[in-house]
């Protein structure tokens, strides 16, 4: 094992020299064929970030999410190498990157899986680029297969906000069709926007007597993926209710006042109104 | 002998149960008192804040210079938000109290708008002063009503838990002083809302206008069904369920839904012109076959097919095997933020999973975009010098006051963060600065 590692470190500079000297025939394994664009996630993005970091363009975390930091690094790379600056990793950009840099996939993947803080700069010993921590040797099996340590979230929202909303949607509408669940999430978000309700999601959800699922504790059931997807759709702008602020189940509604609201439409069992 | 043992065991059992019952009772009471106290606190804070609000408006009326008026307005604005948050913590959920909340929030909007403007250059107009005086009267009435309720509550030791119970059981005829008191407040405010309609206090938000992007003939239910069949990609139009929207809808629409064992689908179609507002398809997504970039091409084709012209990609994000794309309308090189729409593409087959064009249909029109009066370099001067500008565009955005303004949009970096900065292209005013993120550490994977 030790010998292997040693060999590895010897190989890197040698490889570098040969790469530069001979202009190799296309690199053995570099990227899949996709054009990588901002917002993408996955192995190609990890490789892109690692290679950009190797060359010193990217100083952020290698996390597998093509965010703004990666975008600017890529544009700088394209600028420095005299290419068209479009912030897209197309074929020619990927070829140039693969020629100019090295990607130690095994090392990067290992660090990601262990949850270590690490970097991947060229010309530095890998041992000095790792900062043990975070993972505490817990080779967590539940880490996603892609090795991503970050996820995309809509601007202004955290995964925890999404989780809380998903809890509310699941508690309120788990028996409803998918649109009905998006609709309930949309009503919560419409309330956040509305001047007559609290102006954040948790305020709206926990407003006393606003939602039955909160009152009877069903909100603390574990939501499924469908509820989360519904919430994500609603946050991303889908609102099948047409700006509704209230909804009720006509079979169980106790308040007569709710019937006086102008009704917009019925989705599943719920009537949505202004 | 055995009899005595049984008696002893039973006696211990009874004492034990009694003790346990007593403890449960104590615990339940402790929890109830805790909840009651939270309600009481919100309620008393509410009366206090409204009282203070009334006083502050009163002193603002007597102020003359912008120097003292602006901070005062900010203070009133803060108080309205405090009071609103107090209301949000009271168990009024099903009690109609929204007129009062709207009233408070209108005061907030009005004071915010005046606070941010330079009152020395642009003092309160006569109309504004008049409505401000009216606000003073009205907030006084509300204050009196609330103080009255508060007095009764304190005097008779009324409990909010009882309100909650009364509302929960739907016993509306129950004589409940708190409920009655709040209903009186609400009625008082309702009386004002009509007189306030024409005054500048009631803000016009950019959302509150008719749909501008909708044109064409009214379509029939049959035509809607045909269109739904095409857009939702369903073979048999008979299986679509079509309903018309009710009176509360902003604009009359047909809602079309479909369900089989593979997918469920839903869409809203405007009655006039048959424009799709919302499309949502839900099905199992298989492994990713196409890239985010290819998905974007699919989304562009879709836009072209349904005659959304001159749209440019603004944002793309991948969530598992779904790509979500946001597009902006581009009018002659100027991107228009209010004419936005979103598209969702499945990255297994490249099908369109959703479209939402509400913002687009609501705001879209051919605008008269003026020539910028300041140059791009002059606008750059107005940006914080520490921000390294990387990209620039011309854009029309909604500013704080809900008006559309032409701006230079700059994307820049400061430290490790990326910012989007809008500088008014007419007067160089910094209209908006946003810090951009969009990715977050995956807590689930790191734990």
Short description:
Chain A: Residues 175-273 form the Cell wall hydrolase SleB domain. Chain A has two domains: 2-131, Orthogonal Bundle (Muramoyl-pentapeptide Carboxypeptidase, domain 1), CATH 1.10.101; 159-273, Arc Repressor Mutant, subunit A. Chain A has ten helices and six strands, in the order αααααβββαααααβββ.
Keywords:
A: 274 residues; Muramoyl-pentapeptide Carboxypeptidase, domain 1; Arc Repressor Mutant, subunit A; 3-stranded antiparallel sheet; two-stranded antiparallel ribbon; 6 strands; elongated; B: 447 residues; alpha+beta; TATA-Binding Protein; Nuclear Transport Factor 2, Chain: A; 3 domains
Q: Would you give an account of this structure?
A:
The complex is a heterodimer of chains A (about 270) and B (about 450). Helix content of chain A is about 45%, strand content about 5%. With about 270 residues, chain A is mostly helical. Chain A has 2 domains: about 1-130, Muramoyl-pentapeptide Carboxypeptidase, domain 1 (Orthogonal Bundle), CATH 1.10.101; about 160-275, Arc Repressor Mutant, subunit A, CATH 1.10.10.2520. In chain A, a hairpin with a 2-residue loop joins strand 5 (about 265) and strand 6. The longest helix of chain A has 21 residues, at about 1-20. Chain A is elongated and about 75 Å long. Chain A starts with a helix and ends with a strand. Chain B has about 450 residues and is of the alpha+beta class. Chain B folds into 3 domains: about 1-195, no CATH class; about 220-365, TATA-Binding Protein; about 375-435, Roll (Nuclear Transport Factor 2, Chain: A). In chain B, strands 1, 2, 3, 4, 5, 6, 7, 8, 9, 10, 11 and 12 form a 12-stranded mixed β-sheet that branches. In chain B, a hairpin with a 5-residue loop joins strand 11 (about 415-425) and strand 12 (about 430-435). Chains A and B meet through helix 3, strand 3, helix 7, helix 10 and strand 5 of A and helix 2, helix 3, helix 5, strand 2 and strand 3 of B.
């Amino acid at each position: 094992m030790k010998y292997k590692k040693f060999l590895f470190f010897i190989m890197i500079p040698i490889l570098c020299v040969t790469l530069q000297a001979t202009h190799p025939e296309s690199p053995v394994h570099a990227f899949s064929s996709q054009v990588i664009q901002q917002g993408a996630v996955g192995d190609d993005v990890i490789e892109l970030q690692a290679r950009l970091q190797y060359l010193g363009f990217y100083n952020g975390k290698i996390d597998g999410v093509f965010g703004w930091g990666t975008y600017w690094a890529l544009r700088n790379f394209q600028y420095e190498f005299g290419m068209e600056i479009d912030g897209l990793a197309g074929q020619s950009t990927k070829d140039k990157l693969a020629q100019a840099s090295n990607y130690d996939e095994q090392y990067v993947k290992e660090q990601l899986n262990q949850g270590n803080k690490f970097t991947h700069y060229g010309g530095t010993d890998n041992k000095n680029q790792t900062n043990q921590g975070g993972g505490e040797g817990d080779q967590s099996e539940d880490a996603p297969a892609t090795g991503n340590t970050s996820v995309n979230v809509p601007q202004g929202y955290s995964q925890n906000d999404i989780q809380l909303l998903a809890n509310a949607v699941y508690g309120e509408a788990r028996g409803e069709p998918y649109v009905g669940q998006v609709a309930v999430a949309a009503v919560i978000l419409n309330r956040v926007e509305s001047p007559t309700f609290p102006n954040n999601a948790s305020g709206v959800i926990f407003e006393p007597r606003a939602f039955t699922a909160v009152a009877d504790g069903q909100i603390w059931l574990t939501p499924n993926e469908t509820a989360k997807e519904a919430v994500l759709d609603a946050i991303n702008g889908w609102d099948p209710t047409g700006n509704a602020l209230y909804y009720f189940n006509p079979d169980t509604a106790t308040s007569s006042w709710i019937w006086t609201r102008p009704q917009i439409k019925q989705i599943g069992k719920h009537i949505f109104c202004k | 002998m055995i009899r005595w043992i049984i008696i002893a065991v039973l006696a211990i059992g009874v004492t034990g149960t009694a003790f346990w019952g007593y403890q449960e009772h104590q615990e339940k009471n402790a929890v109830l008192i805790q909840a009651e106290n939270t309600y009481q606190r919100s309620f008393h804070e509410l009366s206090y804040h409204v009282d203070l609000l009334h006083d502050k408006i009163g002193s603002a009326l007597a102020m003359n210079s912008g120097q003292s008026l602006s901070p005062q307005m900010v203070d009133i604005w803060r108080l309205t938000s405090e009071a609103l948050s107090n209301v949000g913590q009271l168990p009024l959920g099903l009690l109609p109290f929204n007129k009062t909340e709207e009233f408070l929030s209108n005061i907030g909007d009005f004071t915010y708008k005046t606070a941010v403007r330079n009152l020395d250059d642009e003092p309160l107009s006569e109309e504004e002063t008049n409505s401000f005086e009216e606000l003073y009267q009205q907030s006084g009435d509300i204050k009196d009503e609330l103080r009255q309720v508060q007095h009764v509550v304190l005097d008779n030791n009324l409990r909010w838990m009882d309100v909650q119970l009364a509302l929960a059981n739907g016993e509306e005829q129950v004589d409940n002083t708190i409920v009655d008191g709040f209903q009186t407040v609400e009625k008082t405010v309702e009386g004002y809302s009509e007189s306030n309609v024409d005054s500048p206090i009631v803000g016009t938000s950019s959302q509150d206008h008719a749909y501008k992007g909708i044109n064409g003939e009214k379509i029939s239910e049959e035509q809607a069904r045909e269109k739904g069949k095409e857009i939702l990609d369903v073979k048999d139009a008979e299986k679509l369920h079509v309903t018309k929207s009710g009176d509360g809808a902003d604009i009359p629409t047909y809602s079309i839904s479909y369900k089989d064992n593979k997918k469920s689908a839903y869409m809203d179609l405007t009655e006039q012109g048959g424009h799709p507002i919302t499309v949502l398809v839900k099905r199992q997504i298989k492994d990713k076959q196409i890239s985010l970039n290819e998905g974007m091409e699919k989304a562009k084709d879709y836009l072209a097919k349904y005659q959304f012209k001159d749209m440019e990609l603004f944002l793309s994000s991948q969530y598992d095997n779904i790509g979500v794309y946001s597009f902006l309308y581009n009018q002659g090189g100027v991107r228009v933020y209010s004419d936005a729409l979103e598209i969702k593409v499945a990255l297994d087959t490249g099908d369109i999973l959703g479209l939402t064009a509400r913002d687009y249909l609501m705001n879209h029109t051919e605008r008269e975009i003026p020539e910028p009066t300041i140059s791009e370099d002059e606008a750059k001067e107005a940006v914080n010098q520490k921000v390294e500008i990387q990209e620039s565009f011309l854009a029309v955005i909604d500013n704080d006051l809900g008006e559309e303004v032409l701006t230079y949009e700059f994307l820049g970096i400061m430290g490790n963060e990326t910012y989007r900065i809008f500088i008014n292209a007419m007067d160089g005013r910094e209209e908006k600065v946003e810090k951009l993120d969009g990715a977050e550490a995956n807590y689930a994977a790191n734990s």
